[in-house]
Amino acid sequence: MMVFKFSSLYITLRRIIDLSPLSNRLHLLILLIFTLSFPGCAGMREILDELQLPRLQEKKIERNDFYVSNGDDVIGRLAVIRLKKGDTLPDIARHFSLGINTVSAANPAIDTWVPEAGERVLLPLSFILPDTRRKGIVINLAAMRLFQYKRKGELLAVSTYPVGIGTAERPTPMGRMVITRKKFRPTWYVPASIAEDYRKKGDPLPPKVPPGPLNPLGEHALYLSRSEYLVHGTNKPASIGLRATNGCIRLYPEDIRRLFENTPVKTPVNIVNQPYLVGERDGIIYLEAHTPLEGSGTDELNKAYATLRTFEKKSGHPLDWEKLKEVVAEARGFPVPIFDINRGSELVVPKTIKLWHPGKLYGKLEIPKLKTDAWYVLAGTLRKKVDALRLAAIINHQGPPIPARVLSTSDRHRVLAGPFNDRSEAKEATKRLKIDLEIDGILVEPVDDS
Questions:
Q1: What does the alpha-carbon distance between residue 94 and residue 363 come to, in Å, rounded to a whole number?
Q2: Domains and CATH numbers, the chain
Q3: What are residue 360's phi and psi, to 5 degrees?
Q4: Are 273 and 142 in contact (CB under 8 A)?
Q5: Residue 21: cis peptide before it, omega within 30 degrees of 0
Q6: pLDDT for 399-425, tens place per residue?
Q7: Which residues are marked as active site?
Q8: Which stretches of the chain score pLDDT less than 70?
Q9: Are 63 and 127 in contact (CB under 8 A)?
Q10: By CB neighbour count within 10 A (0-12 exposed, 13-18 middle, 19+ buried), where does 365 fall?
Q11: SS3 state of residue 380
């Protein structure tokens, strides 16, 4: 009977791999895989996984800009990354220019706000292009994704960004429009209906909000031919990938800046709602399923099934319709390979690449150090630390951000928001916590060292 001492084996293999030329590392990997067939190798897969050979990993991945070959409908690649302590899914989503909807749907078992360090997160950085004319800007509401098309010689360039869209009560309109004007640092003229909503919440708004951190339009705005609707930035980045607007299209600040710079006035905009997308790349058929918005599921699903039946008929090979229905039911929000036209075989496992964790996640809030001479707001006292960490993470992702941390004792975990420079700042934060999160915060005065 063959017995392995896995800890010493891991150390030995790690040293060999680190010291081996790149040309030899693939042979070592093949040797490792070969050992999986031997008895007594339980746990070997875990060791192979933990090695994370640099040759098999990448430090960067394209997230916004792609080129489309003739006849292809699928862009990008899927990737995986291991989380570090303190990561949240909204932080990961923003760094990789993804909406929280797509990251959460692709990783349904992972806690959004307090994921465990070391967990693997699938980054759905692959997309099927909407089934419409590839010109100007196309926004797919179901995918909460914007696509911008430009010709670069014989190639079609695609830039794509996640978006926030209108709520069920105030949905984003569909149809064809154009960009009529652009504005850097726009003023928000508050519509009467929105002003009334805020008044009812006890948060009355002025008739107009000037540029600055409190302006929900952010720093850049593209005005549509339906004048009440805009494509704009936001002071609430954690809302990207959610139904959180009053009908406008909302982007991350860094994404709207690029779109603003690259979009001339009179650019056509087509807003569609396609929860089920079928596409082809390199002879492989993919299906991408999203949770449909109200009243849009049945017809769109029938269209997708009709397209798949056409592929089935042309190839002469039957599709596994039960597995297709599983993809639809799971609605994971990324392209799943389902059929190889050239080989007539099914594909059920999408290929992924491994990414190094970046040294710093873009846009992640850094919590200031505690100060004895500052004001704070006690947002809550909880028995379970995980609940306190979750509450602090949610507060950190308000817009504009409110820094919060957890202070723990043996049996209590306090969530403290701040520091704030003075009483008025602390009171304003208390008001926002009440309106946005229904939290009854308690002001904490500075410590008197005298």
A1: 7
A2: 6-51 (no CATH), 132-272 (2.40.440.10), 375-444 (3.30.70.1070)
A3: -145, 135
A4: yes
A5: no
A6: 888 999 999 998 899 999 999 999 999
A7: 232, 248
A8: 1-56, 344-349, 449-450
A9: no
A10: middle
A11: strand
